[in-house]
Amino acid sequence: MNYFWFKAFHIVGIVAWFAGLFYLPRLFVYHAEAYEQPEPAQSILKNQYQIMEKRLYSIIMTPAMLLTVAMAIALITTEPEVLKEPWLHAKLALVVLLIGYHHYCKRLMKKLAADECKMTSQQFRWFNEVPTILFILVVMLAVFKNNLPTDIAAYGVVCLLIAFAAAIQLYARKRRLDRERALSADLSDAGVGSST
């Protein structure tokens, strides 16, 4: 019976942790874009994003990560023979990467708060996709275990990366064109106003 309780709370921890891992880097995107705004909007937005990032990290993400890890350890204690399984070794390696990503997010938060972060919103968009790829791989390992079709999984991840790259580039192009249109409209309005 303990196994089911541990598994249930392990899943709850995973859902909450990944919600934060998906959302925090998105806040970093908006935080980086705040630097493009004129004052006082820039200061107001940066301050608001710092508060949101800190609360998300401290109140949701870190407790959820700790719950996930604690329940995983509890699950393993109910079935210690699973430690001999290669799929679990691969899954644990991915979880170690996720924990590293989690802590790197804290470092980025501190840099953003100190106005020392040099990453652009475009780079943060790429950074935002890392937990998605790791999440997919972890879930596939948990479901397929040692029967994971690695060739299909590899092709799927490559296709996903290509789709992410295309979406990020298309969005960057759209934003650039929108800015150019807005600048052209401002210039034409200024020209019309000065000639009348």
Automatic annotation (TrEMBL):
> E.C. number, please?
1.3.99.-
What GO cellular-component annotations does this UniProt entry give?
Answer: plasma membrane
Q: How does it sit in the membrane?
A: Multi-pass membrane protein
Positions bound to heme: 10, 91
Q: How does it assemble?
A: Homodimer.
Q: What does this protein do?
A: Catalyzes the oxidation of protoporphyrinogen IX to protoporphyrin IX.
Q: Which HAMAP family match?
A: HemJ
Descriptive protein name: Protoporphyrinogen IX oxidase
Please report the organism this UniProt entry assigns to the protein: Thermoleptolyngbya oregonensis NK1-22
| Protein encoded by which gene | hemJ
